[in-house]
Amino acid sequence: MSDRAPARKLGPLAVILLAIPCVAVLVVPWFNKTDPAWMGMPFFYWWQLVWVPLSSVFIGIVYKMVVPSGSGD
Q1: Are 13 and 64 within 8 A, CB to CB?
Q2: What pTM does this model have?
Q3: Roughly what angle, to the nearest 10 degrees, separates helices 12-26 and 43-66?
Q4: Would you state the pLDDT for residue 46?
Q5: Distance between CA atoms of 70 and 24, rounded to whole angstroms?
Q6: What count of other Cβ atoms lies within 10 Å of the Cβ of residue 6?
Q7: I want to staple 21 with a disulfide (CB 3.0 to 4.6 A). Which of 1, 14, 27, 55 is the partner?
Q8: CA distances (Å), 43 to each of 7, 19, 51, in order?
Q9: Are 46 and 38 in contact, with CB atoms under 8 Å apart?
Q10: CA separation (Å) from 41 to 7, 33, 36?
Q11: What is the rounded distance in angstroms from the CA atom of residue 10 to the CA atom of residue 24?
């Protein structure tokens, strides 16, 4: 048997937080352009690259909301 507390279910806020990165990179018409360029990189590419670490931040927030503290031994 395990002495860990069960994880809580995803609430509406958690689902929204997980959906934000998905929508941000999957709705291509929003960012299918070249300007503004950053360090010579077109907007299309750097927008997607920025969302890689941002997605992990959103996932980390949801993880802290769902998994009870003290069960990450």
Answers
A1: no
A2: 0.75
A3: 170
A4: 87
A5: 32
A6: 9
A7: 55
A8: 39, 22, 12
A9: yes
A10: 41, 11, 9
A11: 20
The identity of residue 6, as a single letter, is P
Give DSSP secondary structure letters for 51-70. HHHHHHHHHHHHHHHHSPTT
Is the Cβ–Cβ distance between 11 and 19 less than 8 Å?
A: no
> For residues 32 and 39, is the Cβ–Cβ distance under 8 A?
no
Question: 33-57: string of b/e by CB count within 10 Å (b at 16+)?
Answer: eeeeeeeeeeeeebbeeebeeebee
Rounded Cα distance between 1 and 15, Å, is 30
Q: Tokens for 66?
A: 């769902």
3-state secondary structure of 10: coil
φ, ψ of residue 58 to 5 degrees: the values are -60, -45
